[in-house]
Amino acid sequence: MAELEKPQSKEWSEISRGRAARSIAFFDQRLAASPYIAGDRFTIADITLHVALGFGRVMKFKPWEELTNLNTWRDRTLARPGLAG
């Protein structure tokens, strides 16, 4: 993404990485309590997280590789028609 994002800022990158890690930890904890972000049903909240993680993957941010609840949710989500990747 460096070619698309100029000027680059190492400091801002580090700040953003920390914010992303804290945010995704929140979702991992939330997913320990229910199968989906907002409870027992698949909602726009899950779609939003799915899209955000897709963008994060482009940025080499793959938290599901370390966060068990997020990984289980991701597998469940990717098994849905229309979201299989």
The top-level CATH class is Mainly Alpha
- Classification by helices and strands: mainly alpha
Quaternary status of these chains? single chain
Question: Quick one: how many beta strands?
Answer: 0
Overall domain count: 1
Rg of Cα set: 14 Å
CATH topology: Glutathione S-transferase Yfyf (Class Pi), Chain A, domain 2
The whole-number mean of residue pLDDT values reads 89
Could you tell me the strand content as a percent range? under 5%
What is the CA–CA distance across the termini? 21 Å
Poorly predicted runs = none
The second-level CATH architecture is Up-down Bundle
Q: Count the helices. How many?
A: 3
Main sheet specs: none
Instruction: Name the helicity range.
Output: 55-70%
What features would you describe in this structure?
This protein has one domain (10-78): Glutathione S-transferase Yfyf (Class Pi), Chain A, domain 2, CATH 1.20.1050.10. Helix content is 55%, strand content 0%. The protein has three helices and no strands. The chain is globular and about 40 Å long. The model has no long low-confidence stretch (mean pLDDT 89).
